[in-house]
Task: inverse folding
């Protein structure tokens, strides 16, 4: 998979986050692609429309475990708008999936929440490395992280502190 394909897949994950926002869910989206960059499955957050565990990364891990052989899972990449939470990182590792590429990090999200005066989430904002140290990770992508930040601002109804 070349750099252009990787960037397009990461952009698609951010577009899915936009779809989640438009549907009233938190703005997170993810794409599962095989080693050649072929999209195997997409998912968006559904925590408000289904339940609080309906994270796209968890959905993709569950689907992969049920539908893909071990080698395909090992070489597949998850492209996601936000770094996996601990629940999703664990599911990713248990499913035996390959690398994760994310647009925005857990550290960034935690800083945004602090900036907006939000309560801490019920789960510690651990990094993927802390939960699943054998999973290769890449991110954040600063340009796309800005887009994700603005989506989260819109979701939370707060003004963006970033200029365009």
Result:
């Amino acid at each position: 998979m070349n750099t252009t394909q990787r960037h397009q897949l990461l952009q698609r994950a951010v577009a899915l986050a936009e779809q989640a926002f438009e549907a009233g869910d938190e703005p997170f989206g993810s794409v599962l692609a095989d080693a050649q960059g072929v999209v195997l499955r997409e998912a968006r957050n559904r925590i408000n429309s289904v339940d609080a565990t309906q994270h796209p990364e968890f959905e993709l891990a569950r689907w992969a475990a049920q539908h893909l052989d071990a080698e395909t899972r090992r070489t597949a990449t998850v492209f996601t708008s936000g770094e996996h939470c601990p629940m999703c990182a664990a599911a990713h590792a248990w499913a035996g999936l390959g690398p994760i590429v994310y647009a925005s990090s857990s550290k960034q999200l935690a800083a945004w929440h602090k900036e907006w005066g939000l309560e801490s989430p019920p789960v510690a904002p651990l990094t993927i490395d802390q939960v699943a140290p054998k999973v290769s990770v890449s991110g954040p992508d600063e340009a796309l992280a800005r887009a994700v930040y603005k989506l989260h601002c819109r979701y939370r109804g707060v003004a963006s502190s970033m200029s365009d």
